[in-house]
Amino acid sequence: MIAGWMGHHDVFAFADRYAPLGGVRRHLAGSPSILANVAMSAAAELWKAIRPEDLNWKHRSLSTLMVTLLEQRCGALGVKVTSPADRDRRGGHVAFSRPGAGSVSEALLAHGVVGSFRNPDSIHFGLSPMALSHAQVWTAVDRLAQVLRTEVWREPRFAHVSV
After folding, report:
1. Does 59 fall in a domain?
2. Nearest to 148 by CA among 111, 93, 94
3. Which of 76, 78, 103, 152 is deepest in the core (most CB within 10 A)?
């Protein structure tokens, strides 16, 4: 058997030992499918028209906007930005910590905002300059503020954290 990431029992555990899934799915080797390769080929064509300096500018701009909005609009609601303040070190990723982050992450997902929860209390956002606009970052932080202000994240339906 070829052990692969997609056949791992918990693909997000980043464990140092392989623990296979049960059943036939344990044989997934993590190779992309033919359809994924076709999609990647189309994406590669789009990248030809992108200037790296423009992409870098937008990456920095999106992450700076998110950090600023998180601090201004959610700081009083318990959000603490944990990403480096230096944009070059932060890159296009923004993370914050807050008690109850797992349930907050689930509530955000129900409100159309996709983040990445990390134990014990951190939520990460990868801000893709090709896919996101500044308006979408503003909307995401607005929805976070709403989830925190209304305490909807405390509802039982958000108690089970998926990752």
Report:
1. yes
2. 111
3. 103
Sign of CA dihedral 88, 94, 97, 98: positive
Cα angle 13, 17, 18 (rounded to 5 degrees) comes to 85
Alpha helices by DSSP H, the chain: 34-47, 52-69, 87-90, 101-110, 134-150
How many domains would you assign to the chain? 2
40-51: average pLDDT: 87
**For residue 74, is it within any domain?**
yes
Q: From the CB of residue 27, how many other CB atoms can be counted at a distance below 10 Å?
A: 14
**Mean pLDDT computed over 53-59:** 90
Instruction: Let me know whether 72 and 100 are in one domain.
Output: yes
**Looking at this protein, which amino acid is placed at residue 61?**
S
Mean pLDDT, residues 48-77 taken together: 93
**Is residue 163, in this structure, part of any structural domain at all?**
no
Report CA Rg, the chain. Answer: 18
What is d(CA 13, CA 10) in angstroms, rounded to the nearest whole number?
A: 5
CATH number at residue 109: 3.90.1150.10
* pLDDT surpasses 60 at 134: yes
pTM of the model: 0.73
> Same domain for 92 and 13?
no
